[in-house]
């Protein structure tokens, strides 16, 4: 039996491989999927036809490989001028090659394939193994003479009779199996009628399971509900304590209205500036106290005249120097009088003038400074403000705890309402119960 077909450069196929399962004897599928090429390749291996159009365009040769169930591989090779076979036996490292054998495939290849054509007495041949796509089963589209000649062949006739008997036996076995299956089907229908009431029983069992699950859920939730109730009682106690504390805090007298302290801040800031200026003035006075007393300042009109005269002299001196430069060839002028004392006097005079002006500015600044006001003690006010801030902080913390307790109380109420809604009724007496009545009665239920 053939297990694999491989086409290489065959017609339009560059490489196509098809694995065949056990018992496959027909290929089906949509158009243009390669069914005809596979059938034609199998026919080429079995008959070695002459035409060369099997070689794919651009290729040197076409190959069709057929692998049998015993591991034998038969390769049909078609070149432009010749054709040949390669047969690989299991365990062989090199194939048996056939190139000069005439028109008919080699006997070894035919014996391995077992796809021989049936020769008729009239000289014709019939292919009983490979059929074309649009042609019926062999002999059905052949003349009566070909059918008679085919059945007249002793070997093939015996083979067909054996096939006919086998088909008859399989048909009888199939009909007998069909009757047995029909009888068994009737028996199964009768057995199923006995289970007609089974769906109702199954539904009742399902309801019983659901009720049991609900009862188990309620039983499991009772401890949680008891724990929730205990927590709720503790929270109520905390809420009562916090309410009493808030009442006590609310009884505290309100904080007195704060006096506007903007002017006080401005005054304190001004006092700080004055104190810094005073400290700076004291430091300046301390520095100036070590200096010598300035000499009396006299009128400087004569000194100004002298300075003007001196500047004029300097101008004349420059003019004279320019004249001297122009008269280098002349003899040197006489030595001028000594003026070092005059220069020292001028420098001392200028220094004294600047020092007097600076001291005058400092004196004017110190005279405009007013005495700092007396500072009032504010220790009691600071203590009162500290107590007020502490009380306000305690009030805010108590309010935050009160808000948190209220939120927790609302959450517990929702949780209790959800649990009571799931229970639906009192697990002890069976009476209806709701969350509001349950909470109004102090988490007790009077059935």
UniProtKB/TrEMBL annotation:
Signal peptide: none annotated. InterPro entries: DNA_recomb/repair_RecN, P-loop_NTPase, Rad50/SbcC_AAA. Residues 160-228, 388-415 form a coiled coil. SUPFAM superfamilies: P-loop containing nucleoside triphosphate hydrolases. Keywords: ATP-binding, Coiled coil, DNA damage, DNA repair, Nucleotide-binding. Transmembrane segments: none annotated. Residues 4-229 form the Rad50/SbcC-type AAA domain. GO terms for molecular function: ATP binding; ATP hydrolysis activity. GO terms for biological process: DNA recombination; double-strand break repair. May be involved in recombinational repair of damaged DNA. Belongs to the RecN family. This is DNA repair protein RecN. It comes from Pseudodesulfovibrio piezophilus (strain DSM 21447 / JCM 15486 / C1TLV30) (Desulfovibrio piezophilus).
